[in-house]
Design brief:
It is found in: Cell membrane. The chain is an all-alpha fold and about 350 residues long. It has a domain of about 180 residues: MetI-like fold (Orthogonal Bundle). It is about 75% helix and about 0% strand. It has 16 helices and no strands. Helix 1 runs antiparallel to helix 15 and helix 10 packs antiparallel against helix 11. The longest helix is centred in the middle third of the chain and has 36 residues. It is globular and about 90 Å long.
């Protein structure tokens, strides 16, 4: 086991370097970099009568000022030197500092996590709490009217984009046209600090309801159908027929024999789904409900060419994704002892 884990950890290094190298190379050819954007902002500030960082208003941005900007952002060094400096910092988990927000990348990620965690965790838990029992019920009643009706409902929910559903919820319940039942922005009210503990909980749930509903509806179909198909596959196997022939009740057969084997695909994907809940918040959902999370941070960083944030978040999320894949493999072996690490290496 330990040799397998060590091999996987060692394989993470070239994967990380490959992702960072490809992104770094692409960045070198993308127009409108941070220096160009800073020059544009300076010229716009001067044309509006402001000095723009203390620069003279009666002249344009001269070559000396451009060189100062390049030095400020580190672009006075050759690309290869900047590349190895970046790898050295990332090896020490130093993600750098944002060009435009004047904060470390770590502090930016930490400040945006509450929003992404709130949406992601609620979506994750509600999806599994509803989809797994529903998938089991559909497998037991396969082909019935209940099975057909619930399949139609979850597939319709899957077909509706979360952003479109969010707009519909705002129109219906956010004061758009009908009822003003839920707030339109933020996770808490302005007076949240003055509320009692119960009031804070209710206020938080009041704010998070619409974003979570918009995010969770489209997630039911995948987990529900995966659960149903896994149970159907196990129910048709020989050991279930043998258990029934021995006189065991359907409940005992289902929960003692089928349940553990059928949940194997879900358990294997559980770590990835759980960790993904923190970092896969919908950009459109966050924008629609005015929630400042990791999705919005990533989008704004790409638009502003805030390369430390882009590369830093990419490095962190890639590392977490690789670690999660390793944990998923370990869960696979833990759940099913028949699986050996040698088989995973093939």
């Amino acid at each position: 086991m330990w040799s397998y884990i060590l091999k996987r950890i060692l394989l993470m290094i070239p994967t990380l370097i490959g992702v960072l190298t490809l992104t770094f190379v692409v960045i070198q050819f993308v127009p409108g970099g941070p220096v160009e954007q800073a020059v544009h902002d300076l010229r716009r500030g001067q044309s509006e009568g402001g000095g723009g960082f203390g620069l003279r208003t009666h002249t344009g941005v001269d070559a000396q000022q451009v060189e100062q900007l390049k030095k400020l952002y580190g672009f006075d060094k050759p690309p290869l030197q900047r590349y190895f400096l970046m790898l050295g910092k990332f090896a020490r988990f130093d993600l750098g500092e944002s060009y435009f927000r004047h904060q470390s990348v770590w502090s930016l990620i930490v400040s945006k996590l509450p929003v992404s965690i709130s949406i992601g965790l609620w979506t994750f838990f509600i999806t599994y709490l509803i989809s797994v029992p529903l998938g089991i019920a559909k497998a037991v009643k396969n082909g019935s009217k209940f099975d057909v009706a619930t399949s139609l409902i979850v597939l319709v929910g899957f077909a509706i984009p979360g952003f479109v559903l969010g707009v519909l919820l705002l129109v219906l319940f956010g004061g758009g046209t009908f009822w003003q039942l839920f707030p339109l922005r933020n996770l808490t009210s302005d007076n949240w600090a003055t509320l009692s503990l119960g009031g804070k909980i209710l206020d938080y749930l009041w704010h998070i309801t619409l974003p979570v509903v918009a995010s969770v509806v489209g997630s039911f179909a995948v987990v529900t159908m995966l659960t149903k198909n896994a149970f159907l596959d196990e129910i048709r196997k020989q050991y279930v027929l043998t258990a029934r022939a021995k006189g065991l009740s359907e409940r005992r057969v289902l929960w003692k024999h089928v349940f553990r084997n059928a949940l194997l695909p879900l358990i294997v994907g559980f770590p990835a789904a759980f960790i993904g809940a923190f970092f896969t918040g919908s950009l459109l959902i966050e924008t629609l409900f005015s929630l400042d999370g990791l999705g919005l941070l990533s989008y704004e960083s790409v638009v502003r060419r805030d390369y430390p944030v882009v590369l830093g978040t990419l490095y962190l999320f890639t590392l977490i994704g690789l670690a999660t894949k390793l944990i998923s493999d370990l869960c696979y072996v833990w759940v099913d002892p028949r699986i050996q690490f040698e088989q995973l290496e093939r």
